[in-house]
What we know:
Radius of gyration of chain A: 14 Å
Largest sheet of chain A: 6 strands, mixed
Oligomer: heterodimer
Structural class of chain A: mainly beta
Number of strands of chain B: 11
Number of domains of chain A: 1
CATH superfamily of chain A: Immunoglobulins
CATH class of chain A: Mainly Beta
Largest sheet of chain B: 7 strands, mixed
Strand content of chain B: over 45%
Distance between the termini of chain A: 41 Å
Helix content of chain B: under 10%
Order of helices and strands of chain B: EEEEEEEEEEE
Radius of gyration of chain B: 13 Å
CATH class of chain B: Mainly Beta
CATH architecture of chain B: Sandwich
Number of helices of chain B: 0
Largest interface: A-B, 21 and 24 residues
Structural class of chain B: mainly beta
CATH superfamily of chain B: Immunoglobulins
Helix content of chain A: under 10%
CATH architecture of chain A: Sandwich
Number of domains of chain B: 1
Strand content of chain A: over 45%
Amino acid sequence: AQSVTQPDIHITVSEGASLELRCNYSYGATPYLFWYVQSPGQGLQLLLKYFSGDTLVQGIKGFEAEFKRSQSSFNLRKPSVHWSDAAEYFCAVKDQNRDDKIIFGKGTRLHILP
Amino acid sequence: GAGVSQSPSNKVTEKGKDVELRCDPISGHTALYWYRQSLGQGLEFLIYFQGNSAPDKSGLPSDRFSAERTGGSVSTLTIQRTQQEDSAVYLCASSPRLAGGYEQYFGPGTRLTVT
Lengths: 114, 115
């Protein structure tokens, strides 16, 4: 079955440091990929998405992600994190057999040290 | 524009009672999804609507759970005879389902606590 793996359950970085959150997917063809962020007590907000074209995708809040087919990865990055980036981050992929379904990873919780 | 809204934001109920959770999707979005998120867990898919029909109910955990959508808009998730394990955040999402627009837009969720 298709799956999305976020190997890190928790990540802690210092404010101002760079960030990379890992995401791997199982898929045969070119996937449709997403990153969502969930702040405490909130729903999920779409950060960015990749469908085709340039493999480096820019999103909101200064985030970017790079699609690497050879590694089946879609890692999320930010050059300098802010305390407000503390949240849970979900990677997701559209189900390859269905247009109406997105498969979510289990999430990575980001903690920011002052 | 207006996003997905859900009500109530919080609901505390006694075990055995029925509850109704409401979702108002983004206007014009044809697809609507319900998910459950338990403490520290990822998203558990419950049910999907395309228009008023629910082609995929595979995620509903038991026959105590049901959902409907009317007028291609508002949806209600009903949980009958609530149990403590039903305590979770229930998230609703909608999607325009336009070409290439597979992303889902989420509401803030309803936090359900069963005592």
